[in-house]
Amino acid sequence: MDTIFALATAPGKAGVSVIRISGPLAFDTARALAGDLPSPRRAALRVLTDKNDRHLDDALVLRFDAGSSFTGEDVIELQVHGSVAVISAVLGELGSISGLRLAEPGEFTRRAFENGAMDLTQVEALSDLIESETEVQRQQALRVLSGELGDRVDGWRRDIVRAASLIEATIDFADEEVPVDVTPEVFGLLETVTISISNELKGLDASERVRSGFEIAIVGPPNAGKSTLLNYLAGRDAAITSDIAGTTRDVIEVQMDITGLPVTFLDTAGLRDTDDVVESIGVERAKNRALAADLRIHLVPNGDEPLIEVSDQDLVRQAKCDEVSELGVSGKTGAGVPDLLSEVSKVLSARVARSSLVSRERHRLILEHGLEYLTRALELLRLGPEAYDITSEEIRSAVINLESLLGRVDVEHLLDEIFANFCVGK
Fold first, then answer.
1. Pair (217, 333) in one structural domain
2. In terms of domains, do 182 and 302 share one?
């Protein structure tokens, strides 16, 4: 492979910036710039010079030997002063060295994958970790990045391969008397994996929401205080407020962190019948977004009823209730807001508690296809030895399917899209 380099930290001024070099020429390059290298996985202060022996910077040099580095290759990291000029000078010098080139987006991580240092689920988790903004997102990404999902998939694979080997041994000795009926053991292995995958899929929706964020729609009639409540939650004037009915005509979004959960509050148009064409579009959008949201907060004027159906776990509050009340809320005074947010956290946390390790549509499709193969294998198994050939093929297909989840079979068409989302230095 080529030897690649890139700035691994954010561009711009900083106290320290990290430049990463990976590939077969990494150590030779570092020696040309810094002289003697430190011991593996050790840092040492060195003076960096260019090919004309001019001083570039004083830097900490870290050495990682192949097999013990992020990419699985020889890696050098240069911790230089975070000056735009220093970074430019060091990168310029690296770019002038024959055999080196600037890394493409995500190329360091792609090399880690191709060298077996990470599986595909860990690559996706690293992307999620970099993008995480809340504590729950961080925790979920770290669980998968640690290899927990890969270990689970490996466990499924071992059981399925064991089942396949039993079936195929029976096929190989079809003309001889086999002393043990393998059907019960094979059935037990496949059924255990099927149940485990089904349970993982049940928690996928919650995991997806942790990644992308929960949506909470604030719904109610015009002048129910929806925009005022949104502004209070945001701590700024995110939405226009007015006594004139129909002021809000589009859906306004405000992102928040509630006890570590990523939440987007939606201020929707007031629900009512109207002859105003533009307002009627806003009302229709409000209804659609409210129905698609994960949770709805119904603001209801005193004595009225909610205007759309209240689903399980939806929260209903009396609108413009300026006095502290368990069932009322006011965006003007803040009365009832702490209790409202506490209830939101309680409802969403209960959903997160049911989340699984899988969190992407790619995961869903692979596991659903795997279940189809295993279900057919179980049905064929009931037909007895005469169907073992077809049963074995279905089991093999399930194994290949699960391997694609970790990227161990041909997934080339997915890789460019996945790694393109990374920054250059990662």
1. yes
2. no
